[in-house]
Amino acid sequence: MSRRYLNLTPLPEALAAMRQAFPPGDHVETVPLRQAVGRVTAEPLYAEYSVPPADIAKFDGYAVKSSETLGAQDQRPLPLAEYARVNTGEVLPPPFDAVVMIEDTWDDGGIPRIRKSAAYGQHVRRAGEDIRAGELVLPKGHRVRPFDIGALATYGIDRVRVRSVLVGIVPTGSDLVPLGTAPAPGQTVETNTLMAEAYLTRTGATCRRYGIVPDDPALIREAVEKAVAENDLVILSAGSSAGTRDFSRDVVGALGEIVFHGIAVRPGKPVLLANVDGKPVLGTPGYPVAAQTVLREVAGNLLAWWGLSPLPCGELDVRLSRRLASDLGFDEFVPVSVGRVSGTCWATPHPRGGGIQMAVVRANGYLHIPAAREGIEGGEEVRVRLTVPPASIAHTLVCVGRRDPALSELGNRLSETGYLLHCCNASTMGAVLALRANTCHAATVALPETEEAWNDLVLRYLPDVDLLRVQVARTELGVASAGDLDADSLASLRFANRPKDTAARLLLDAWLDRQGIPADPPTGCADARVCPARVAEEAGLRFTPIGYESCDLVVRKDLAADDGVAALIRIARSPESHASPGSAGKGRNPT
Amino acid sequence: MSRRYLNLTPLPEALAAMRQAFPPGDHVETVPLRQAVGRVTAEPLYAEYSVPPADIAKFDGYAVKSSETLGAQDQRPLPLAEYARVNTGEVLPPPFDAVVMIEDTWDDGGIPRIRKSAAYGQHVRRAGEDIRAGELVLPKGHRVRPFDIGALATYGIDRVRVRSVLVGIVPTGSDLVPLGTAPAPGQTVETNTLMAEAYLTRTGATCRRYGIVPDDPALIREAVEKAVAENDLVILSAGSSAGTRDFSRDVVGALGEIVFHGIAVRPGKPVLLANVDGKPVLGTPGYPVAAQTVLREVAGNLLAWWGLSPLPCGELDVRLSRRLASDLGFDEFVPVSVGRVSGTCWATPHPRGGGIQMAVVRANGYLHIPAAREGIEGGEEVRVRLTVPPASIAHTLVCVGRRDPALSELGNRLSETGYLLHCCNASTMGAVLALRANTCHAATVALPETEEAWNDLVLRYLPDVDLLRVQVARTELGVASAGDLDADSLASLRFANRPKDTAARLLLDAWLDRQGIPADPPTGCADARVCPARVAEEAGLRFTPIGYESCDLVVRKDLAADDGVAALIRIARSPESHASPGSAGKGRNPT
């Protein structure tokens, strides 16, 4: 009924076992030159002929015999006797051995004159100056760049042998529906294979996606057999966990040999690698962020081992803005947003759940906490692998705190100015500490609309920092409950969702105090919760208002002169930002 | 008959004029999600529904009512009374409010038991935890990454409005032949539009290449009119210079208004920008490296201005290994190879000619010398824009000196070990200075095969450096001449191709000395030259042997322990490297 991973293999060991089980093979195909960009050369490429094939003019002008130009001087211009008009790139007709630029001649009655003698070979491109026939153009294993193909074409190479790995991607899961179908509760849109295809294609692999296979061992077996027969590598998406409907292990175990099952990686634990007919079958987790980690760190590693090229990915040494805990023994990958604040690059972490795809979408990079580390301290230098062009970091603003929907709209408008707003979720205290340490461009705090709250929760921790504060959202909160709130029911209510120092907690405690009811200590159980009216309404619950929460954008004054921060403040203060507070966050894609 | 650029516009002014003439327009198209990777969003994208849509199980296990698990302890395991088996990702059936992981249960006669109570909401993903319906997924202007499309698909977005610029690319030139045709002397393979397509497509533009247009004003006019009607931007490749067959200026000047003609950029000077029916027509130079510069710095700039995304390109602050001269008033772009030597990254320049495509192919980046600089000193810190993934720098070996064809084969074999060999051409003195300054991993020097030459040209400049030396090629040199070399003709011969301290010069001077003939001072004219036998033979000249040149790989002993350098030495010393000295450089592409 239940089943455990026997062992979680450490990541380095898993990769070593994988490389040993699947040595680089001979995966090659020939493609037309135009399709070679981004692919990796399987063989060295040599020039088919010399370029230029003969001596040619470097400039527009006159081909001359250098020996006949001797004696031309400023004071004694020389009319050209024997010459030929040549344009840039044209072959020098014999017996000429030099070129005089048209700019260095004067037209006098149809005869060009020069004021300086021409040296032998002047302004002439020698045959083979760029490359000689048979000379190496690109070595084996080179990822072809856009401008490389200009050179290859020039040297007569119009087809290229490139490394080629066929990857078959099989989605499994009875809960999956294809892209374009709205999922019913309990259903999930099948997206992991789409993502795998997009990612792996860019390493130079050729991907083929198969149809969704329900959780049925016989059907999975059939799909794996077909994919193994048709590809060099098979990705079996989901089903490699240890639940009652996870059949991947049994199926591939019966078809071949398990190399490992379970890797000490977060996110990404339930990874399965098997050898079926000498080919690797990789079972990836269903959680999308876990699947991404495995695609990058395991499938990407195998493809690199086989000679394909990992995605170009900038690296940056930055400081971590706050402590990150991590379990000893697990290689952990954490999405972060990097921004440069007062000359120092800081990485601020996003949530790590395997299902929080938005964390990866919001991030501009990720960092790797090795298994030997129990965590990384705030302020420590870390290496971040970027998922955006490194140059974009200079235009990135990091905002730490409440990720209010109003921030999204601010970010949209900010993007018009060329700046990108990255919002990293944090408590009020987290936001205040980031402001104090100067690791963010801006912070957002959600507080009861009172000076007391602002003083207690913000100012007292930042006594020496001048701040700018702009309200970006204002929300009425209340108690959502199944029944009416009378004195009796209030006394026995247990409230969920109210961590210390949140507006919900502070407003509720003050409201309960006004009702003459002592606040109960938080427990694991809940009969009621504090939320905005809209949320209570959507859940079909009764709403009893208790007060207003203000979400404020807070900036250190010493950063306010920064171009990006100034633009952010200007937009936050503009009237459009307050036009429709109620509609914030109800965006709609145009159809 | 001749024509000059009236003014060379400085690059920043040219870009400003371009941006003013062509403000960002409304260039948008809708593409299926799979095709959105690498494109730039034209509008913000919002989630179509909440994810998860309902509370779901985070782990495989049992859905329970948290209130019924109170009291379970290690000493007092509790059998579950009411529960439902759930797998990861399944909706929590009411009235359950928490999940117990299967790993935390014991099966006892078919009834699962627990040793710890479950908190309210434990191991449950709340509805909307990842994203809520209507929440922002991607802002406008975001370049879609491979993993972004997984998130977009999950949130119900299967089509994306992306920025779209149609670029028409028109090749002009009567000397052009299409790819796949071997060019006769004076002909050039039409490659610039292929390169433009590959480059601009990757910024998110949609490119259309037109057929080759000969140098005929009427035909060029027709082609430009058609391309302007069908595209948002037209690239007119070549013909924008000031030669007799450069009609671009006249044609586009007649059709519209010239914005600028000639930019103070090297390479890239003959650039033409015109406004035809409100659309930009950009005339690019014919020399491929000049064309690349204009594609990157001008066309790329316009597309960025219009909201497309420039190619991701890592930047690295490095030191320049030797002085680079540059003319005041010209923005200059120089291909370089960057390598890390003893912990410091050094950039070594390649030749700068607009026709030397191999310089760009061999380089892994380029640097920009601003117009206000007359050059950059050796050792100065410069910012290099990389054309390879930054991580590859750690595996790059830079070799400075004679770029002997034998080096290509060394590089090919070295690539099997994961290292890339970059060869930067330099004189013997340049190579020796690079060794002395420790700015390269290895150097190659070509010398007469005598201890005297080695001592005079290498050792005396490196008295305190221990060196390793491996011969990689040995070539017999001789005098190539039209006629026989007897005493009379020898006395009157003028020799070309023999700069000071080259093996050719040293061997020739020694040989002339042996013949009792005084060496003449070098002039601009030449009747004979020193070269290998093969070259004389190919040119149909008589060959008189004068001695042997040795090309040696030289490495500082203090670098020999470096993994990459050790691999290079091992390969250079291996017997295969000396198997066929004569055939080096006569590579052939397999067919």
- Report the mean per-residue pLDDT of chain A as an integer: 87
Described by the principal axes of the CA atoms, the overall outline of chain A is: flat
Chains forming the largest contact? A-B, 130 and 130 residues
Q: DSSP strand (E) fraction of chain A?
A: 25-35%
What's the count of strands of chain A? 35
Distinct helical segment count of chain A: 14
Can you give a write-up of this model?
Two copies of one chain form a homodimer. Chain A is α/β, with parallel strands linked by helices and 591 residues long. Chain A contains 14 helices and 35 strands. The first copy, chain A, has a seven-stranded mixed sheet with strand order 30-29-31-35-32-34-33, with helices on both faces. In chain A, helix 3 (192-201) runs parallel beside helix 6, helix 4 (217-230) packs across helix 5 (248-255) and helix 8 packs across helix 14. The first copy, chain A, is flat, with a radius of gyration of 33 Å. The first copy, chain A, starts with 10 loop residues before the first helix and ends in an 18-residue tail after the last helix. Residues 1-5 and 579-586 of chain A have low confidence and may be disordered. At the A-B interface, strand 2, strand 11, helix 2, strand 15 and helix 3 of A face strand 2, strand 11, helix 2, strand 15 and helix 3 of B.
